[in-house]
Fold:
Amino acid sequence: MTEHYQRRKNAKVEIVDFRSEHADAFRQMNLDWITLYWEVEDADRLYLDNPREKILEPGGAILMALDEGEAVGTVALISMGNGSYELAKMAVDARSRGKGVGWRLGRALLGRARDMGATRVYLESNTVLEPAISLYRKLGFRSIEGGASCYDRCNIQMEIWLGGDRSTETVEHPNP
Structure:
Protein backbone atom coordinates (compact mmCIF):
# COMPACT_ATOMS: atom_id res chain seq x y z
CA MET A 1 0.00 0.00 0.00
CA THR A 2 1.48 3.37 -0.93
CA GLU A 3 2.11 6.04 1.67
CA HIS A 4 -0.19 8.45 -0.20
CA TYR A 5 -3.08 5.95 -0.10
CA GLN A 6 -2.37 5.24 3.57
CA ARG A 7 -2.56 8.97 4.40
CA ARG A 8 -5.79 9.37 2.42
CA LYS A 9 -7.35 6.38 4.17
CA ASN A 10 -6.40 7.79 7.60
CA ALA A 11 -7.97 11.14 6.74
CA LYS A 12 -11.41 9.68 7.44
CA VAL A 13 -10.44 8.52 10.94
CA GLU A 14 -11.87 11.03 13.38
CA ILE A 15 -10.60 11.52 16.96
CA VAL A 16 -13.47 12.35 19.33
CA ASP A 17 -14.14 12.58 23.04
CA PHE A 18 -15.46 9.47 24.78
CA ARG A 19 -19.21 9.21 25.11
CA SER A 20 -21.26 6.65 27.01
CA GLU A 21 -21.96 4.70 23.83
CA HIS A 22 -18.19 4.11 23.45
CA ALA A 23 -17.88 2.25 26.78
CA ASP A 24 -18.17 -1.25 25.31
CA ALA A 25 -15.63 -0.54 22.54
CA PHE A 26 -13.21 1.07 25.04
CA ARG A 27 -13.45 -1.99 27.25
CA GLN A 28 -13.31 -4.64 24.50
CA MET A 29 -10.40 -3.17 22.53
CA ASN A 30 -8.35 -3.08 25.73
CA LEU A 31 -9.36 -6.58 26.81
CA ASP A 32 -8.39 -7.86 23.35
CA TRP A 33 -4.76 -6.72 23.59
CA ILE A 34 -4.36 -7.48 27.30
CA THR A 35 -5.63 -11.07 27.04
CA LEU A 36 -3.44 -11.70 23.99
CA TYR A 37 -0.40 -11.60 26.30
CA TRP A 38 -1.50 -11.54 29.96
CA GLU A 39 -4.25 -12.02 32.47
CA VAL A 40 -6.60 -9.11 33.14
CA GLU A 41 -5.59 -7.50 36.43
CA ASP A 42 -7.76 -5.83 39.08
CA ALA A 43 -6.57 -2.35 38.06
CA ASP A 44 -7.58 -3.10 34.46
CA ARG A 45 -11.08 -4.09 35.52
CA LEU A 46 -11.46 -0.99 37.66
CA TYR A 47 -10.65 1.41 34.80
CA LEU A 48 -12.36 -0.57 32.03
CA ASP A 49 -15.57 -1.15 33.97
CA ASN A 50 -15.78 2.41 35.34
CA PRO A 51 -14.23 4.81 32.83
CA ARG A 52 -16.41 7.76 33.78
CA GLU A 53 -15.85 7.41 37.53
CA LYS A 54 -12.17 6.38 37.45
CA ILE A 55 -10.85 8.40 34.50
CA LEU A 56 -13.14 11.25 33.46
CA GLU A 57 -14.61 12.53 36.74
CA PRO A 58 -11.20 12.80 38.50
CA GLY A 59 -10.03 15.15 35.71
CA GLY A 60 -8.87 12.84 32.93
CA ALA A 61 -9.95 12.27 29.35
CA ILE A 62 -10.62 9.40 26.97
CA LEU A 63 -10.27 9.79 23.23
CA MET A 64 -11.78 7.49 20.63
CA ALA A 65 -10.68 6.98 17.02
CA LEU A 66 -13.69 6.47 14.77
CA ASP A 67 -13.61 5.21 11.20
CA GLU A 68 -16.95 5.95 9.56
CA GLY A 69 -18.52 5.98 13.02
CA GLU A 70 -16.97 2.67 14.12
CA ALA A 71 -14.57 2.74 17.08
CA VAL A 72 -11.14 1.57 15.89
CA GLY A 73 -8.93 2.92 18.68
CA THR A 74 -8.86 4.52 22.09
CA VAL A 75 -6.54 6.08 24.66
CA ALA A 76 -7.01 7.48 28.16
CA LEU A 77 -5.37 10.33 30.02
CA ILE A 78 -5.52 9.76 33.79
CA SER A 79 -4.86 12.64 36.18
CA MET A 80 -2.03 11.92 38.62
CA GLY A 81 -2.15 15.39 40.22
CA ASN A 82 0.27 18.33 40.11
CA GLY A 83 0.19 18.61 36.31
CA SER A 84 1.12 14.96 35.72
CA TYR A 85 -1.06 12.63 33.71
CA GLU A 86 -0.78 8.99 32.71
CA LEU A 87 -1.29 7.79 29.15
CA ALA A 88 -3.19 4.54 29.68
CA LYS A 89 -5.50 2.05 28.03
CA MET A 90 -4.26 2.74 24.51
CA ALA A 91 -5.64 0.20 22.07
CA VAL A 92 -6.18 -0.05 18.33
CA ASP A 93 -8.50 -2.63 16.81
CA ALA A 94 -6.51 -5.42 15.13
CA ARG A 95 -7.97 -4.57 11.70
CA SER A 96 -6.76 -0.97 11.97
CA ARG A 97 -3.21 -1.55 13.21
CA GLY A 98 -0.37 -0.31 11.05
CA LYS A 99 -2.52 2.44 9.55
CA GLY A 100 -1.43 5.37 11.72
CA VAL A 101 -4.38 5.26 14.12
CA GLY A 102 -2.12 4.93 17.18
CA TRP A 103 0.01 7.86 16.00
CA ARG A 104 -3.09 10.05 15.57
CA LEU A 105 -4.42 9.03 18.98
CA GLY A 106 -1.06 9.71 20.61
CA ARG A 107 -0.71 13.15 19.02
CA ALA A 108 -4.29 14.04 19.94
CA LEU A 109 -3.74 12.86 23.51
CA LEU A 110 -0.60 14.98 23.92
CA GLY A 111 -2.48 17.97 22.51
CA ARG A 112 -5.30 17.39 24.96
CA ALA A 113 -2.80 17.03 27.81
CA ARG A 114 -1.29 20.43 26.91
CA ASP A 115 -4.79 21.96 26.76
CA MET A 116 -5.46 20.56 30.25
CA GLY A 117 -2.30 22.18 31.60
CA ALA A 118 -0.20 19.02 31.85
CA THR A 119 3.52 19.42 32.35
CA ARG A 120 4.30 15.73 32.10
CA VAL A 121 2.69 12.60 30.67
CA TYR A 122 3.81 9.25 32.05
CA LEU A 123 3.09 5.72 30.90
CA GLU A 124 3.67 2.11 31.89
CA SER A 125 4.03 -0.69 29.37
CA ASN A 126 5.84 -3.90 28.57
CA THR A 127 8.69 -4.28 26.10
CA VAL A 128 6.98 -7.27 24.44
CA LEU A 129 4.70 -4.64 22.88
CA GLU A 130 7.42 -3.50 20.45
CA PRO A 131 5.16 -1.50 18.08
CA ALA A 132 3.71 0.41 21.05
CA ILE A 133 7.14 1.16 22.53
CA SER A 134 8.32 2.36 19.11
CA LEU A 135 5.26 4.61 18.82
CA TYR A 136 5.84 6.10 22.27
CA ARG A 137 9.46 6.89 21.37
CA LYS A 138 8.36 8.54 18.11
CA LEU A 139 5.91 10.65 20.12
CA GLY A 140 8.83 11.83 22.28
CA PHE A 141 8.58 9.58 25.35
CA ARG A 142 11.81 8.54 27.09
CA SER A 143 12.40 5.57 29.42
CA ILE A 144 12.68 6.39 33.12
CA GLU A 145 13.28 4.58 36.40
CA GLY A 146 9.86 4.90 37.98
CA GLY A 147 8.26 3.69 41.17
CA ALA A 148 6.24 0.57 41.81
CA SER A 149 3.47 -0.22 39.35
CA CYS A 150 0.02 -1.57 40.13
CA TYR A 151 0.41 -3.84 37.06
CA ASP A 152 2.40 -7.08 37.27
CA ARG A 153 3.05 -6.90 33.51
CA CYS A 154 4.80 -3.51 33.64
CA ASN A 155 8.53 -3.67 32.85
CA ILE A 156 9.05 -0.21 31.34
CA GLN A 157 8.01 3.27 32.39
CA MET A 158 8.29 6.30 30.13
CA GLU A 159 7.53 10.00 30.26
CA ILE A 160 7.44 13.11 28.13
CA TRP A 161 7.77 16.61 29.51
CA LEU A 162 5.43 19.20 28.05
CA GLY A 163 6.78 22.08 30.13
CA GLY A 164 7.02 23.20 33.72
CA ASP A 165 9.11 21.73 36.53
CA ARG A 166 11.24 18.77 35.45
CA SER A 167 11.44 17.25 38.89
CA THR A 168 13.19 13.91 39.17
CA GLU A 169 10.74 12.65 41.75
CA THR A 170 9.75 9.03 41.48
CA VAL A 171 6.40 8.64 39.80
CA GLU A 172 3.91 6.58 41.73
CA HIS A 173 0.97 5.01 39.94
CA PRO A 174 -2.29 6.54 41.14
CA ASN A 175 -4.37 4.25 43.29
CA PRO A 176 -7.13 2.98 41.01
User: Anything to note?
Assistant: The chain has a mean pLDDT of 88. Residues 3-121 form a domain with the Aminopeptidase fold (CATH 3.40.630.30). The chain has six helices and seven strands. The helical segments are 3-10, 23-37, 42-49, 51-56, 101-115, 130-139.
